[in-house]
Design brief:
257 residues, 10 strands, alpha+beta
């Protein structure tokens, strides 16, 4: 737990409110005296993890008895976007997950079609950068299998998750949440797009209709409210070019546990 608190303290300081948090992250991202240190640490961590995990070992899975009775939501609990509200009111009947970009076979799948695909269920620990952790049971489609159906182009390097979750970028300005991972994590057996939690449909506050579970990384990498997956060769043309909403504001792109 101390590692998570230290990470958050390093990344965002002691911001007392959401606006202060964003401002602090922006200052950190723009501070050359700290930026090089964070980039060096991220690079060292990424290379060490890739070396140690080259065989794609599984993270620990728990038993039903270990499931946390209270699993706090990370991030937004209810998107403010009207499109999301309308989709939710229709029980996501008209929602489609789009898989596009550097693929030979673009997809547009309904929730029912996704649920009909071969699934994986896993009981794992979610570790938040704020210092808490909880254990939950997740059911979903392995991301690697979905990407296999889409048939990636040879130049594909990263998977970007676009969400229906509007976030405050600056006073009076909104932007949609996004996240990204590389192919190494995308094809890990425990990286899934979850539509179920604890043997029920995924709750709204936990990211319905679909959220990412990338079990080897810290909580903010586990994007919620996903409606589009974009396969790309590079990240510098999306958002501010750092690979994620929070990464654009000072967080590290690789947040391996």
């Amino acid at each position: 737990m101390n590692a998570f608190i230290t990470r958050r303290g390093l990344l965002v300081g002691s911001a007392a409110s959401a606006s202060a948090l964003l401002t602090g992250c922006d200052r950190l991202a723009d501070a050359p005296s700290l930026r090089w240190l964070l980039d060096f640490g991220q690079s060292a961590s990424l290379h060490a993890q890739r070396l140690l995990l080259s065989g794609q070992p599984l993270v620990r899975e728990y038993t039903e008895a270990d499931i946390s009775p209270d699993f706090p939501p990370n991030g937004t609990e209810m998107p403010r976007d009207m499109g999301y509200f309308q989709s939710m009111a229709a029980q996501f009947a008209g929602w489609r997950l789009k898989v596009e970009g550097l693929v030979r076979n673009p997809l547009a799948l309904s929730l029912a079609e996704i649920k009909a695909l071969p699934s994986r269920t896993q009981i794992t620990m979610h570790s938040c950068d704020e210092g808490w952790s909880a254990i939950g049971k997740w059911t979903g489609v392995p991301l690697g299998a979905l990407l296999g159906r889409a048939e990636l182009d040879p130049q594909a390097r990263y998977i970007v998750f676009h969400c229906m979750d509007e976030m405050v970028r600056a006073p009076g300005r909104l932007g949609f949440y996004y996240e990204s991972i590389d192919l190494f994590d995308a094809f890990h057996p425990q990286t899934i797009l979850a539509y179920g939690m604890n043997d029920k449909d995924l709750p709204i506050r936990h990211g319905a209709p679909l959220r990412l579970r990338v079990e080897r990384q810290i909580g903010y990498k586990n994007a919620k409210f996903i409606d589009r997956i974009e396969v790309v060769e590079r990240l510098d043309r999306i958002g501010r070019g750092k690979g994620g909403f929070w990464e654009d504001r000072g967080y590290q792109w690789y947040a391996g546990l």
